[in-house]
Design goal:
- The structure is a single chain.
- With 312 residues, the protein is α+β, with helices and mostly antiparallel strands.
- It folds into three domains: 77 residues, Ubiquitin-like (UB roll) (Roll); 158 residues, Cathepsin B, Chain A (Alpha-Beta Complex), CATH 3.90.70.80; 31 residues, no CATH class.
- It has eight helices and 16 strands.
- Strands 8, 9, 10, 11, 12 and 13 form a six-stranded mixed β-sheet that branches. A five-stranded mixed β-sheet has the order 2-1-5-3-4. A three-stranded antiparallel β-sheet has the order 15-14-16, with helices on one face.
- The N and C termini lie far apart (61 Å).
- Hydrolase that can remove conjugated ubiquitin from proteins and may therefore play an important regulatory role at the level of protein turnover by preventing degradation.
- This is Ubiquitin thioesterase OTU.
- Its EC number is 3.4.19.12.
- One of its GO terms (biological process) is ERAD pathway.
């Protein structure tokens, strides 16, 4: 059987291997990757996909094709920390043994840095811009239309879950509405994008000083953070203390970072770093009327049927 190509990413760079097939065993793959990376096979951790997900490599005789590895995939190699005996007085980081998506052992904060906000444009697409930033590490506004279309298609294909009562309007109307670049995204869109990309989206709410987690019940292995001030979303990223590249995707088991996000929410609320929804100004994009506050906008929508509002 003809071999297929795999891209291998390690700390030292990228390589390509093309001497395996989908029927090659996991043991063969681990031996090859271990020799290539100098990581002992018993401490090798392989991730793939976007966002990266850990592959189960415990079944030595399983074909790599059955493990979901396909020709053209990029495999990210990491070295797991060496396991140490439990010691309540130790200040070292405890290794985490993963079974499926659940952490079996609690551990200390993984990330060494400070959580910071990246400001994105107030152009009615801030939610979509923020999501693609935390997934890609950069802003590319051309992706927003794709994300809106993805949401619309998901809703249209699951009308039992996304019915008129949930959407507040007909499926057809909602799908048309959300694909308009003047329409704001919210909880429905965050839930859909979390499920599509297989990542938990933690929204730091600075009004109520709480964190709302979308996809938490799915036990995804990775988490991203957004900041919400009442009407606007911004992505959060970790600025490492050592000056290395910023980080936007984190293990859900990083309790230290979650605590830092909770502290950020509390500090933002206490310093009133949020938008007062009763005082901000909106513009009806249908009739160009300016409205002050969320209540006025809701009343305008009720009396006119206009639901497209823009930030001012």
């Amino acid at each position: 059987m003809a071999g297929f190509a795999l891209r291998i990413k390690t700390k030292s760079g990228h390589q390509i291997i093309n001497s395996l097939t989908k029927d090659s065993t996991m043991k063969e793959l681990k031996e090859m990757l271990s020799n290539m990376s100098s990581i002992p096979a018993n401490r090798l951790q392989i991730l793939t996909g976007f966002p990266p997900k850990i592959i189960d490599i415990s079944q030595d005789e399983e074909g790599i094709g059955n493990a979901g590895i396909s020709s053209g995939d990029t495999l990210i190699l990491e070295e797991k920390s060496q396991e140490k005996p439990s010691n309540p007085t130790s200040d070292s980081t405890t290794d985490v043994a993963m079974s499926g998506n659940e952490a079996e052992v609690p551990f200390e904060p993984l990330s060494q840095g400070i959580l910071m906000k990246h400001i994105v444009p107030s152009d009615n697409s801030c939610l979509f811009t923020s999501v693609q930033f935390v997934l890609n590490g950069k802003i590319d506004s051309t992706i927003n239309s794709y994300l809106r279309q993805l949401v619309a298609e998901t809703i249209s294909n699951d009308r039992d879950l996304y019915n008129d009562a949930i959407l507040g309007k007909s499926v057809e109307s909602y799908c048309s509405w959300i694909q308009d670049d003047k329409s704001w995204g919210g909880a429905i869109e965050l839930s859909i994008l979390s499920n599509h990309y297989g990542v938990e989206i933690a929204v730091v709410d600075t009004i109520n000083a709480i964190i709302n987690k979308f996809g938490e019940d799915q036990h995804y292995p990775h988490r991203v953070y957004l900041l919400f001030d009442g009407i606007h979303y911004d992505p959060l990223f970790l600025e490492p203390f050592d000056g290395s590249k910023i980080q936007t995707i984190f293990p859900v088991t990083d309790e230290g970072l979650l605590k830092q996000a909770q502290q950020l929410a509390q500090e933002a609320k206490s310093s009133r770093q949020f938008t007062d929804v009763d005082k901000f100004t909106l513009k009806c994009m249908v009739c160009n009327v300016y409205l002050k506050g969320q209540t006025a906008a809701q009343q305008h929508a009720k009396t006119t049927g206009h639901t497209n509002f823009g930030e001012v």
